[in-house]
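Technical annex, item 7. During the second reporting period the consortium partners agreed on a shared format for inverse folding records so that results from different sites could be compared directly. Each record opens with the tokenized structure and is followed by the designed sequence. A conforming record, contributed by the partner at site C, is shown below for reference.
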């Protein structure tokens, strides 16, 4: 029989152990609770790690949060809607409280959505919040993506997080499409009909794919329940899972920060997660929720009762999908009919297929691989935790704007019929113009953006070398007029000189000893071409010697009050500060 109190040799090792003070933990309730939890779950280490985690502060970092919070609002309101929504296409006669549709035969899905809107207390508001949150979610995801792109926050080590984000943005669009297709009203039914057309346009397998997805001929009764499972289970699960990985990577990589005083590639200047950031984030969640609820309370969205239940016959012009599907709809409207042809008894719907089933994957693939392409072109293998100012990466910024201009043209094309009606213009003229713009607008946008970036960089250089224009004109004794330039503070100047001006890569791998092209010559030549495209036009930041020279050039400024300048050293911030300090000492 064994007794607990038997002393064992090993006990001697614990002679220095301190007994936990029962009374003490009982007295500090909060600490006590935390202590109690830690004793059992051991979370203290994790909490202290989080508490010490520092988050840089900048308004543009809130865009990802808006995406996160609107996604949470979608999940919460969506869960509410599942209590009443009936995902069925079976036909019923409506007998709810919305009089104009009483006695009309419709699908159970449409009937239950009417029920949520008119018979469930708060149902309409929740439906509105859910739809508006979805629209704001997708907008904020794209604006967040643009922020990350134009500041170069996708560079090493964040390439994978960029890819996760890219997939998240595509899923957000598909989730939205699946969601607004559920009520089975005339407009969403048209969307599903169009989707069926897209699927059928796939060469050879189109009709089989359509039968597989719709469970038979269109519309059938399977598509609504299938979209429902995708919308309330499959896609949200992937979204939340991928988003969690996304945020964990943000923690792992630490958040990037904009260049500024004391900020380097090795540190993060900002607020600790606990308590500051969490408090700010919590407050911001309720602001986002509040704004969405306010919009939802005053602006009607998706009034399905006005559209009526889905019926393929009464289709009209002016039926557009939700905004984030506009570009794909626009691409379809711009593709000319003559692209369709027949061979081997098969119809090749090249007037539909590229705009529907090719455009989306192609566009998202290009977005997803961009960080890897830029890294290959620049040959830059370093980690980047300091963000770029878009002007300092002119080619990347121009590529981004060119891409956005192409997207905008497609988006506008989705409203070609509305523009024709509202502006009393010919729909063919509008379509032709947009077809031309699709090819012409991006290169023009690229060129203008690049020129603007380069001139902004030049203006920065001028500002560093000559100070900020004050608009005050000084008249010298000899009658000359001069504008007074106010010197920049070292911090302001640092931001304008801290970036690198990449040089185009030199072509390395040429010919081997026998003058024969080395195997990788072709790839290297291509890379050198891209690198030249990226970095041929550039403006190098002002160097300390250039400022010194500008300083002496302004010797006569001595006569102008506040016109003095300071020397700089575009090395690490501290070095810069040292230099400035040194100058101050020498007066
Ligand atoms: C469901 C959609 C998304 C949500 C909820 C989300 C949320 C967030 C949040 C909260 C942050 C940290 C704060 C910030 O920098 O804004 C973040 C960072 C980041 N996100 Fe997203 N994001 C989403 C989609 C995307 C997309 C589409 C991309 C790019 C294609 C992307 C790329 C990144 C990157 C690279 C970071 C790190 C940024 C940095 O450290 O500066 N995210 N995301």
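Designed sequence (site C submission):
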């Amino acid at each position: 029989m064994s007794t607990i109190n038997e002393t064992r040799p090993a006990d001697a090792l614990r002679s220095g152990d301190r007994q936990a003070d029962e009374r003490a933990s009982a007295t500090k309730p909060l600490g006590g609770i935390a202590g109690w939890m830690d004793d059992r779950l051991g979370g203290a280490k994790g909490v202290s790690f989080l508490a010490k985690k520092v988050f840089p502060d900048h308004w543009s970092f809130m865009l990802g949060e808006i995406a996160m919070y609107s996604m949470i609002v979608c999940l919460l309101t969506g869960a509410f809607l599942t209590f009443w929504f009936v995902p069925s296409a079976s036909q019923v006669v409506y007998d709810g409280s919305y009089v104009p549709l009483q006695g009309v035969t419709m699908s159970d899905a449409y009937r239950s959505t009417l029920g949520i809107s008119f018979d469930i207390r708060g149902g309409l508001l929740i439906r509105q919040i859910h739809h508006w949150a979805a629209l704001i979610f997708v907008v904020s995801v794209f604006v967040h993506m643009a922020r990350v792109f134009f500041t170069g926050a996708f560079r090493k080590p964040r390439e994978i997080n960029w890819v996760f984000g890219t997939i998240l943005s595509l899923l957000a669009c598909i989730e939205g499409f699946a969601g607004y297709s559920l009520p089975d009203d005339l407009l969403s039914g048209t969307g599903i009909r169009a989707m069926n057309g897209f699927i059928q346009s796939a060469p050879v397998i189109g009709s089989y794919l359509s039968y597989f997805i719709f469970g038979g001929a269109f519309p059938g009764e399977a598509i609504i329940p299938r979209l429902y499972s995708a919308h309330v289970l499959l896609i949200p699960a992937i979204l939340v899972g991928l988003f969690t990985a996304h945020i964990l990577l943000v923690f792992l990589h630490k958040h990037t920060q904009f260049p500024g005083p004391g900020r380097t590639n090795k540190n993060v200047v900002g607020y600790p997660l606990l308590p500051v950031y969490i408090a700010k984030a919590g407050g911001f969640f309720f602001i986002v929720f509040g704004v969405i609820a306010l919009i939802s309370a005053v602006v009607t969205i998706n009034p399905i009762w006005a559209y009526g239940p889905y019926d393929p016959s009464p289709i009209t012009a002016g039926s557009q999908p939700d905004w984030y599907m506009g570009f794909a709809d626009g691409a379809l409207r711009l593709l000319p009919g003559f692209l369709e042809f027949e061979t081997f008894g098969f119809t090749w719907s090249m007037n539909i297929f590229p705009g529907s089933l090719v455009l989306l994957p192609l566009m998202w693939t290009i977005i997803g691989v961009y960080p890897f392409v830029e890294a290959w072109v620049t040959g830059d293998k370093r980690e980047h935790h300091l963000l770029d100012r878009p002007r300092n990466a002119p080619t990347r910024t121009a590529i981004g704007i060119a891409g956005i201009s192409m997207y905008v043209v497609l988006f506008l094309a989705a409203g070609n019929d509305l523009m024709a009606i509202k502006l009393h213009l010919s729909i063919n003229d509008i379509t032709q113009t947009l077809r031309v713009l699709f090819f012409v607008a991006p290169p023009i946008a690229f060129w203008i953006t690049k020129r603007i970036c380069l001139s902004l960089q030049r203006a920065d250089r001028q500002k560093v070398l000559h100070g900020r224009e004050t608009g005050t004109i000084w008249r010298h004794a000899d009658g000359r007029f001069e504008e007074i330039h106010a010197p920049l503070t070292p911090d302001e100047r640092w931001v304008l000189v801290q970036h690198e001006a990449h040089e185009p890569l030199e072509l390395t791998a040429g010919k081997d000893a026998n003058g024969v092209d080395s195997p990788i010559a072709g790839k290297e030549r291509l890379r050198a071409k891209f690198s030249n495209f990226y970095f041929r036009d550039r403006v190098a930041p002002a160097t300390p010697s250039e400022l010194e020279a500008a300083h002496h050039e302004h010797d006569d400024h001595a006569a102008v009050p506040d016109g003095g300048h300071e020397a700089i050293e575009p090395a690490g911030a501290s070095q810069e500060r040292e230099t400035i300090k040194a100058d101050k000492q020498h007066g």
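Residues 1-5, 562-573, 575-587 have pLDDT under 50 and may be disordered. The CA atoms of residues 91 and 121 lie 25 Å apart. All partners now use this format for quarterly exchanges.
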